[in-house]
Amino acid sequence: MNFEGTSREKFFYHNTLLCLIRCLQDKNITVDLRNDSYVCGQLVAVDGFMNLSFCKAVYCDTQQNEYFFDNLFIQGRNIRYVHIPETMTILGSLTNELKRNKGRKPGLKPEVKSTKATKALKQHMKTVAELDN
Fold first, then answer.
1. CA distance linking residue 28 with residue 54, whole number of Å
2. How large is the greatest C-alpha to C-alpha distance in the chain, in angstroms?
3. What pTM did the predictor assign?
4. Edge-to-edge order in the sheet of strand 52-60
5. Cα 51 from Cα 21, distance rounded (Å)
6. Alpha helix (H) ranges present in 1-133?
7. How many CB atoms lie under 10 A from the CB of residue 19?
């Protein structure tokens, strides 16, 4: 299952620790928010901007009032911390996530050389071979 999204989202996925958050999908986690409140619940989805979707979530505000939600969406800009469960091995999870996505950055294609560059490379290799003799 490859990561899907815009090119910008794919960039964030491959160049930040967003892939670590994606490893937490379908697990119960706690997220601290910027307004000193927090959310606990089962993480359903993560997009390329670290927007989180929860199901069966509990929102606790700064006065310790608890609000229960069947579905809850949090924008990435409102997140302060994501608590990683102690039972999860970070390196193993990252390795598995990147293998699942083939560990390759999107948009990288094999380098195609022009005819002129190919000819120059052949000439260079010929010159190097003559120097070895």
1. 9
2. 82
3. 0.68
4. 66-74, 52-60, 38-46, 28-33, 79-83
5. 10
6. 7-15, 18-22, 90-100, 115-132
7. 20
Phi-psi region of 73 (alpha: psi -120 to 50; beta: other; left: phi over 0): beta
pLDDT tens profile 78-101: 999 999 988 888 888 888 887 877
Could you tell me which residues come within 8 angstroms of residue 52 by beta carbon, excluding any fewer than 6 positions away?
Answer: 21, 31, 43, 45, 46, 73, 74, 76, 79
Distance CA(42)–CA(54), nearest Å, equals 5
Which letter, b or e, does each residue of 94-123 get, where b requires 16 or more Cβ atoms within 10 Å of its Cβ? eeebeeebeeeeeeeeeeeeeeeeeeeeee
- Position 107: which residue type? G
Token pair, residue 103, equals 């560990």
Token representation of residue 118: 């190919």
The tokens describing 86, both together, are 């102690």
Q: Report angle CA 5, 7, 11 to the nearest 5 degrees.
A: 100
